[in-house]
Specification:
178 residues; alpha/beta; Rossmann fold; 6 strands; globular; transferase; Methyltransferase
Length: 178
C-alpha cells in the first residue's frame, strides 16, 4: 500500500500510476518539478521534469528524453497546441490528466499571470479524440470529482460532477500520420 495524501487528485493519480507504471520505468513528467513530482519520487519512481520551456514552441525537444513513460498531469490544457506535444512524446506509455470542462463554470484564468490560463477545458470525448488523432491508443479512462467543503449550488454541483479526467494510453504502433 502507499501513503494517503491530503489532495484527492494526488491519490487518484497515484493509484493509476501504480496500476500502469513500474518503478523500473524512467518517467518524463511534463512541466517543472512540482509537489506531485515529489510524491512520485517518494513512491519509488524515477522522474525527469521538463525545464519550464514553452512546449508549444519547443515540443520537438521532448523526443530527446530517454524514457519509457510520460506523465502529462494537468498541463495539456495550458497549451495552445497540445497535439504537437502529444505527437512528439518519447516512450510508449502515457498517463495524462486534465480538468474537465464544466457547464456551470467558466474556463480557468489567472488574471495576475497571463501564462496561467486554460486554453482548453475538454469534454472527455474531445480529449479522447485528441489523443487518438495524435497516435495514442486509450487503454484506461478514469474520472473523479473535486471535493469542496463550501455551501452553495456550485459547490454542490462540484461534488457530483466529475472535474478530473485521467487517461492511460499506449502509442498506437499501427497509426500513420496523414
Amino acid at each position: 500500500m502507499y501513503k494517503i495524501y491530503p489532495e484527492k487528485r494526488y491519490n487518484e493519480t497515484l493509484k493509476l500510476l501504480h496500476k500502469f507504471a513500474s518503478t523500473e520505468d524512467k518517467i518524463l513528467d511534463l512541466g517543472v518539478k512540482n509537489p506531485f513530482s515529489d510524491v512520485m519520487e517518494e513512491n519509488g519512481y524515477t522522474i525527469i521534469n521538463t525545464s519550464g520551456e514553452d512546449l508549444d514552441y519547443h515540443y520537438h525537444n521532448l523526443k530527446n528524453n530517454d524514457v519509457t513513460f510520460v506523465t502529462a498531469l494537468e498541463i495539456l490544457e495550458h497549451l495552445v497546441n497540445p497535439m504537437e506535444v502529444l505527437r512528439n512524446l518519447p516512450g510508449d506509455k502515457l498517463l495524462a490528466t486534465i480538468p474537465m470542462r464544466l457547464w456551470f463554470a467558466p474556463a480557468y484564468r489567472n488574471k495576475n499571470d497571463p501564462r496561467d490560463v486554460h486554453y482548453h477545458e475538454f469534454e472527455d470525448w474531445q480529449f479522447d479524440m485528441l489523443l487518438e488523432k495524435a497516435g495514442w491508443k486509450i487503454i484506461h479512462r478514469h474520472k473523479w470529482t473535486h471535493p469542496t467543503n463550501k455551501i452553495g449550488i456550485r459547490p454542490f454541483l462540484r461534488k457530483i460532477t466529475p472535474r478530473y479526467y485521467a487517461v492511460y494510453a499506449e502509442r498506437n504502433k499501427d497509426f500513420e500520420f496523414k
